[in-house]
Amino acid sequence: MTQSLEFDQTFGFIAKVLQMIGYPSCLAPYPTTFASRLKSSAGFVVCFLMLTYCVFGQIINIGLLMMGHRQTDQVVEEVAIQVSSTGFCIIGLAKMYSLSYNRAILSWLIADFRVKWNAGELTDKDRSIRDGTLRPTVAITTVAALGNIIMVSAFNFQPVVEMIYGRVVTGEWVKLFLYVIWFPFNSTHGAIYYLVYLFEVYSGVIVAVGNVGFNCIFCLLTSHLSMQLKLLCSWIEDMVEVEDEKGVQSKKKLYRIVRYHQDLIRGRNALQSMFSTTLFLNFSASSVLMCMQLYLITTAGITLMVKFTLFMLCILMEIFILCYYGEEILANSSSIAAGAFNSNWYQSKVSQQNPRFGKNLIPIIQQGQRPMVLTAWKFWPITIRTFSAILQTSWSYFTLLKTVMH
């Protein structure tokens, strides 16, 4: 028999991953004083400032490149590469800011879901629904986090491999960097080069962990909410006890369901407040980034083409997973109205003893007909249809860019 899933197991791995960039454990209670919050987030603040300078230095470099202060034979391609790198870092920076700014909301959501998870009145059927919903999400987020760590490690060592290969072929060392960042000093001089390279390596780790940490937290929270919606729908369908002649037990279950539904609506509103703006930036920027990658794939050599293709696939997978879990909330909240209608409210014993029982279901049905939809800044609903729209937008940008360039 499969062991029941513990609540801390759902967030445990991603909490450890986020600690790589100094983010306090999301399973720990929220600090009550400003001093304690600052102390627990000191490492995270340092990482945030490092990534901020990384973004700032890349933006300056793009400006110098476009003004002709940096010599290159392929300005458009070079700008496209720099814009893609900078855009990815900006998204990571925004996600880190969101995790920090909304830490209190995150702590409240996790505490609320923990109470519901450990509720003593859950039956074996409820626990089966609970574990069956969360186990795949935990597996997906774990694989996503590990995959990002592996890819970042490969990206960090790519310049080293290229330098070794250049040394073998030409007999000379050519100093390369992970990012093209402006520094107010000569970054290739002596020991400074190694310090700058280490700075860029850890900046790459920061942006990757910030991105995947935010995404996994979103997936886990939405999966918890989806699981609670599934439980609610199951309770609604089994709400009426045919043998309950006076309808007392059925009425108690109805009141409990109404309160539970209201709690889940508050949870949805908290999720909307926490993720809405950042996901709008993510979706908007991803359209442009995928356009850039498509253009670079069609113009680059075979080695760079593989690199740009993998980068684009990572963006596609990220957007798809976010939209998929948003779709889960939409689908499970939409089933509440059908569950209420399909309950045994029309059974003679219940309806005779409590004629208003059926009418009391009307608000639940009406609320269920307005399904919960998370939106990216009230502009894009986070659903599979939005994923399709982002792909179409990216393709339109790409075809326009190709037409202009040719």
From TrEMBL:
InterPro entries (alphabetical)? 7tm6_olfct_rcpt
The portions of this protein that span the membrane are 42-67, 79-99, 137-155, 176-195, 201-221, 274-296, 302-325
Q: What is the annotated signal peptide range for this record?
A: none
Please give the Pfam families that the UniProt record associates with this protein: 7tm_6
Supply one GO BP term: signal transduction
Cellular compartments per GO CC:
plasma membrane
- Membrane topology, as annotated: Multi-pass membrane protein
One annotated GO molecular function: olfactory receptor activity
Principal location: membrane
Instruction: Write out the annotated subcellular location.
Output: Cell membrane; Membrane
Query: Any idea which UniProt keywords this protein has?
Result: Membrane, Olfaction, Receptor, Sensory transduction, Transducer, Transmembrane, Transmembrane helix
Question: Could you name the domain of life of the organism this protein comes from?
Answer: Eukaryota
Regarding protein family, the annotation reads: Belongs to the insect chemoreceptor superfamily. Heteromeric odorant receptor channel (TC 1.A.69) family.
Q: Which PANTHER family match?
A: ODORANT RECEPTOR, ODORANT RECEPTOR 13A-RELATED
Designated name of the protein: Odorant receptor
Q: Which organism is it from?
A: Aedes aegypti (Yellowfever mosquito)
Which lineage is the organism of this entry classified under, starting from the top rank? Eukaryota, Metazoa, Ecdysozoa, Arthropoda, Hexapoda
Q: What gene name is listed for this protein?
A: 5566400
